[in-house]
DNA sequence: TTGACACATACCGATATAGGCATATGTTTG
DNA sequence: CAAACATATGCCTATATCGGTATGTGTCAA
């Protein structure tokens, strides 16, 4: 069996380095596709396709302006990723706390 | 071309739901492969292969004990995630600040 | 030593994916 | 309306990946 669809979840969407590059360049603010193409030296269709994936998971939003399409970040959609990460950091902290307690007990 | 190698990229490594499942089950602490197999009802080779990927990106560590191999989380390797995420939260906060300023100006 | 056990690895088939190229769609300008 | 521009989409190929089955490797027990 092949991999599961990347379009279905945020984790898979940010798994691709090119897509992270695109998100990075959008940190600078709303941009038309052409600007991303120039910034990253990627082909236009490639950028459009990655933007489509990012759109489908909601990480970017699109707005038409004339013949341009302006894409912008939708950082709120990183919430699932944030929650996931926090879960692990929590576990780490708990573990460290336990070590602390242990060390304190030794004294 | 296919996706880039999951073995080199931490983000790609957690792109797979099964691997996230494995990490989740390791939140409970160090476990031998067999326990993961039981927990997740996955085949043993499948688990071993995913563990290999997770090892290669450093997200888990392995320790032999008798004929068992105990795997545990390596929370330090979550750093790239935290750094990446922080970048975007920054952007989000900046945007919220701007909205605040705007609303204040309206009053 | 032999067998049972725990795990890793090799090989294979099926499939989704990334990227390239060509083209369609929609918009502005002349 | 026609031509230029910006972007999206369809088709194609190559390849990495996932999962399965079979087998290899190392460890303990009798």
Features:
homodimer, 3 strands, alpha+beta, elongated, 59% helix, 5 helices, three-stranded antiparallel β-sheet, 107 residues, DNA-binding
Write the layout of secondary structure elements.
Two copies of one chain form a homodimer.
Chain A: H1 10-13, H2 17-26, E1 31-32, H3 33-40, H4 44-56, E2 60-65, E3 68-73, H5 79-106
Antiparallel strand pairs in A: 1-3, 2-3
The structure holds a DNA duplex (30 and 30 nucleotides).
Structure description:
The structure is a homodimer of 107-residue chains. In chain A, 59% of the residues lie in helices and 13% in strands. By secondary structure, the first copy, chain A, is α+β, with helices and mostly antiparallel strands. The radius of gyration of chain A is 19 Å and the shape is elongated. Chain A starts with 9 loop residues before the first helix and ends with a helix. In chain A, a hairpin with a 2-residue loop joins strand 2 (60-65) and strand 3 (68-73). A 3-stranded antiparallel β-sheet of chain A has the order 1-3-2. Chain A contains 5 helices and 3 strands; from the N terminus they run ααβααββα. The model of chain A has no long low-confidence stretch (mean pLDDT 91). Chain A has helices spanning 10-13, 17-26, 33-40, 44-56, 79-106, and strands at 31-32, 60-65, 68-73. At the A-B interface, helix 2 and helix 5 of A face helix 2 and helix 5 of B. The structure holds a DNA duplex (30 and 30 nucleotides).
């Amino acid at each position: 069996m092949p991999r599961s669809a990347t379009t279905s979840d945020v984790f898979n969407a940010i798994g691709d380095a090119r897509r992270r590059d695109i998100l990075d360049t959008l940190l600078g603010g709303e941009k038309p596709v052409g600007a991303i193409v120039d910034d990253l030296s990627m082909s236009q269709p490639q950028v459009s396709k990655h933007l489509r994936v990012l759109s489908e998971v909601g990480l970017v939003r699109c707005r038409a302006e004339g013949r341009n399409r302006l894409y912008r970040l939708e950082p709120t959609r990183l919430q699932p990723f944030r929650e996931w990460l926090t879960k692990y950091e929590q576990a780490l902290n708990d573990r460290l706390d336990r070590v602390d307690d242990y060390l304190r007990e030794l004294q």
